[in-house]
Specification:
Helix content: 40-55%
Shape: globular
Number of strands: 14
Largest sheet: 5 strands, parallel
Bound molecules: 5'-O-(N-(L-cysteinyl)-sulfamoyl)adenosine, zinc ion
Number of domains: 2
Order of helices and strands: EEEHEHHEHEEHEEHEHEEEHHEHHHH
Strand content: 15-25%
């Protein structure tokens, strides 16, 4: 699949910082030390509805990761998937009497437009589940040959007990895992499973549903976790730097994915940090396609909201916090954008070197965007109050805000 165009990332004077970030698996901050090429896998959308602000907030967090690394002069190998075949997509297509392929293509196209408008840097590889099937089948076959997978009425399940490290991403107890598994795509109550938590690797073809040739697995379609593992191992290999997504993916998705990969390769861990963004709510409840309490990026854009203001609204919240979208959040962001644009549109201003370092320090410290915004606010306030004589400063501020946070002033 093709991704979307990259906005330019201006080079900044001085030195970037190594990223320190919260890792769900260890429960603490880790300072990542990627080689010259940092490797990150971020779970992509299931394209059955338009991009909402919760999605945008999560992708904003990982865009910051990429920008902090680029500022250290590293290359970034960023991979993202599109879950372009899965139950929720097929159910929505059925409900709306539309072709599931057309629905996935339409919503993926809209996602690309939203990401471009928000200046989110694209992944180097943007891979759909369907196109990944030829790589998924041999992995499931290998798991079965290794005794880590078993068949139940034609479906193939992964045995969580085959991974001695199972549980080390989310650290939940069995009861909590069981609850979340039922909520998030698992089937803990299906009779005949070895362990209720075992996730499906390959679902045998169901009447009226799309299916693909699975070699020795028979016709069917892939499970959700093996999709991301196949794409990540194919393009990044084991031991990559960051596995990213929203906090609702920590269990079961990232736990199961890590187990699949660890059993397949015999290596541990799959990723050096499992990074999870908080959930954005609307009217007191997590924004979710299934509940329908959504604010769409594309709707805001149609309403004439500047994408840079949407981006500032996201950046005003720490990525790990759960927060609520309100009209005030957007109003504050629009006002901040106006203040910043006025401040950088003058021919000179207060010196900006220290500000660039403050933004770098804040973002390298677990992506603390609110602290970075506060630093820019102080510079803009000083500009408004007494101005300055540094003719380079307004340009330096614009470039820093764009390079490090994707906000075009
Ligand atoms: N296709 C899978 C991942 S492989 C999936 O979870 N798709 S999704 O469309 O449901 O979500 C895409 C990303 O947005 C995930 O990282 C998810 O955790 C995140 N996300 C979904 N809802 C919210 C929300 N309300 N707030 C923050 N992030 C969210
Ligand atoms: Zn995923």
């Amino acid at each position: 699949m093709h991704a979307w165009p990259a906005s330019e990332v201006p080079a900044l004077p001085g030195q970037g910082r190594d990223l320190r970030i919260h890792d769900t698996a260890t429960g603490g901050l880790v300072t990542l030390d990627p080689g010259p090429v940092a490797r990150i896998y971020v779970c992509g959308i299931t394209p059955y509805d338009a991009t909402h602000l919760g999605h945008a907030a999560t992708y904003n967090a990982f865009d910051l990761v990429q920008r902090v690394w680029l500022d250290t002069k590293r290359q970034v190998h960023y991979v993202q998937n599109v879950t372009d075949v899965d139950d929720p997509l097929l159910e929505r297509a059925e409900r709306d009497s539309v072709d599931w392929v057309a629905l996935a293509e339409k919503e993926t196209a809209l996602f690309r437009e939203d990401m471009t408008a928000l200046r989110m840097l694209p992944p180097r590889h943007y891979i759909g589940a369907v196109e990944a099937i030829p790589g998924i089948v041999p992995l499931v076959e290998r798991l079965r040959e290794a005794g880590a997978a078993y068949e139940l009425e034609g479906d193939i399940y992964f045995s969580v007990e085959s991974d001695p490290h199972f549980g080390q991403v989310s650290h939940l107890d069995a009861a909590a895992m069981r609850l979340l598994s039922a909520e998030r795509g698992g089937d803990p109550n299906r009779p005949g499973k070895k362990n209720p938590l075992d996730p499906m690797l390959w679902m045998a073809a169901r009447p009226g549903e799309p299916s693909w040739d699975g070699g020795s697995l028979g016709r069917g379609r892939p499970g959700w976790h093996i999709e991301c593992v196949a794409i990540a191992l194919d393009h990044l290999g084991m031991g990559f730097d960051v596995q990213g997504g929203g906090s609702d993916l920590a269990f079961p998705h990232h736990e199961m994915g890590a187990s699949h990969a660890q059993v397949l390769t015999g290596e541990f861990p799959m990723a050096k940090a499992y990074v999870h963004a908080g959930m954005v709510a609307l009217h007191g409840e997590k924004m979710s396609k299934s509940k329908g309490n959504l604010v769409f990026v594309s709707q805001l854009r149609r309403d004439g909201v500047d994408p840079a203001a949407i981006r500032l609204a996201l950046l005003a919240h720490h990525y790990r916090a759960d927060w609520e979208w309100t009209d005030d959040v957007l109003r504050d962001a629009v006002a901040r954008l106006d203040r910043w644009r006025a401040a950088v549109s003058r021919p000179d201003g207060p010196p900006a070197e220290a500000l660039v370092e403050e933004i770098r320090d804040a973002l390298a410290d677990d992506l603390d965007a609110p602290t970075a915004l506060a630093a820019v606010d102080r510079w803009a306030a000083a500009q408004e109050e007494h101005g300055g004589t540094d003719t380079a400063a307004p340009g330096v501020v614009s470039r820093a805000v764009d390079a490090l946070m994707g906000v075009a002033l």
